[in-house]
Design a protein that fits this description.
With 380 residues, the protein is α/β, with parallel strands linked by helices. The protein contains 13 helices and 10 strands. The strands form 2 sheets. Strands 1, 2, 3, 4, 5, 6, 7 and 8 form an 8-stranded mixed sheet that branches. The radius of gyration is 20 Å and the shape is globular.
Amino acid sequence: MPNVIDLFSGAGGLSLGASRAGFTVISAVELDPHAIATHRTNFPNSQHIQRDIMELTGETLLALSGISAEHLDGIIGGPPCQGFSNIGHRNVNDIRNTLFIKYFELVKEVHPPFFVAENVPGIMNSKYNQIRNAAFDHVHDYHLLPPIKIDASEYGAPTKRTRMFFIGFRKSARIEPFTKADIEQMKVSSNQRTTVRKALEGLPSNIRYRLNDTGIRKIANEYYNRDLMHIQSTFFYERVIGMRPMSLGNADYIQNYEHHHEVNGFFPTKHTQIVKQRYARLKYGQQDRISKATRLNPDGFCPTLRAGTGPEKGSYQAVRPIHYAYARVITPREAARLQGFPDWFKLPETIWHSFRQIGNSVSPIVSERVLQAIFQRLTL
């Protein structure tokens, strides 16, 4: 199988998509200890490099990954986007913006046949022209596709999360040329698109707050019966319950999932009665005037899930959507479904880290579709 390295891997949205597309994720680089712990849990056979990427060279990256340049097929990654985000301060001098350039420096030094970088649409603002140009100067010998703006819902995920993808390939016997059209043709047909109601099918929804809750719930056996009618498309259903590459998953969690249909991440948020009453009065798509949380439309798509801030910025929880059928915000497992993660993917054991990692993740459904298009161009 062809090999990739995932830079700024987070919990593993890009890694999961790459694995499902046919790649082996040789290593993941992530500085956050909680995010890399989640990646390690779900990708036990990858090398995990918890290092500041600014301190890495191409040579050390390969050495830590345990692979030589001639055996590496691609570098994938989503450099931190907060400095470019429309909801942030959009400071052109934000130190995190230099990480976008560093990504391309490492691509230059390692020189794989292809690369895929993901970021927010805000990076296309003219105020960041200098940053983008400085980054792309490192890959002048690559054919760089025009930036691709991807709406996740068009590729089968239940969210309208929109991101820019920067994709390039160089002349190599290991890969055939491809175009922006090859990527965009991976959109799913309208009957394969997944709305909120469909995405949450099968999950226990009337979750109540309990002291010392483990977050583990059992999903009804009927949901796993393929002979029964499901409102989810086959495309989404199979990606929720299965399509697990053999090397992926936490052994104990997978055993409980497959034999007992136990799934984690059902951490409810404790709301006061006044808050519940406010939420209950909201119409679909309406925003609560105090919390700013929006009630999900069951027949629409989930808005972009936010990550909140890290410890260096006060560890603030992002605003979470309100369930369409219940007067509460969604649980981490519901957020994972709406982002496109399967139920066999083990989430962190705290609500804060779960939401932060999901909000920072590329939808694995999107990354699978994008990387599948590239996989088809490899000359294996």
